[in-house]
Amino acid sequence: MKKTVLVPVTRSESSRTVLPHVEALLPAGQGEIILLYLTKPSRALGIAAPDPDSGYALEPGGEPVGPKAHPVYAHQQENGIQANIEAELLPTMRYLSEQGYDVSLEVCFTDEPVKEIVRLTKKHAVDLIAMSTRAREGVRRFFFSDIADRVMQQVEVPVLLFHPKA
């Protein structure tokens, strides 16, 4: 029976240091690994300005004849972010796939990462959540709760935490 492992990742290489431990626990060909990238939703409307070095002819006032500044909407920004994340994680996904795992990527835009991890754990019938953590200690841990701690309190599946050495 195939097992499903959810691995929240960031752009940081340290977030992926848990993957060799997942490979050690989950034999190749016997599981699915879902890489989960969480980021805050885009809120603002941006403006894309034309590139002055693009070589467009200039009008008498110095304005380019080519494209003018135009709005960039939140969904366009999110599509761009998603494409960048997919490209950045492609080598990791390719490696895991070559090892025999079914690999997928979820990119989620949310202000509540813990709720999203819990939701996806239920949606995909996840058997294990594997994540790297900074493992704060003492007073810092009291004032800045770790996402990993909050996830462990809210899910009913095992959570593998790995603290990479600094």
Topology overview:
Blueprint: E1 3-9, H1 19-25, E2 31-39, E3 46-48, E4 70-72, H2 74-98, E5 102-109, H3 113-123, E6 128-132, H4 138-143, H5 147-154, E7 159-162
Parallel strand pairs: 1-2, 1-6, 2-5, 6-7
Antiparallel strand pairs: 3-4
List keywords for this structure.
alpha/beta, two-stranded antiparallel sheet, Rossmann fold, five-stranded parallel sheet, single chain
Question: What's the gyration radius in Å?
Answer: 21 Å
Main beta sheet = 5 strands, parallel
At the first level of CATH, the class is Alpha Beta
- Give the spatial strand order of the biggest sheet: 5-2-1-6-7
State the secondary-structure class. Answer: alpha/beta
Which oligomeric form is depicted? single chain
Order of helices and strands: EHEEEHEHEHHE
Number of domains: 1
Distance between the termini: 37 Å
Contiguous uncertain segments of 5+ residues: none
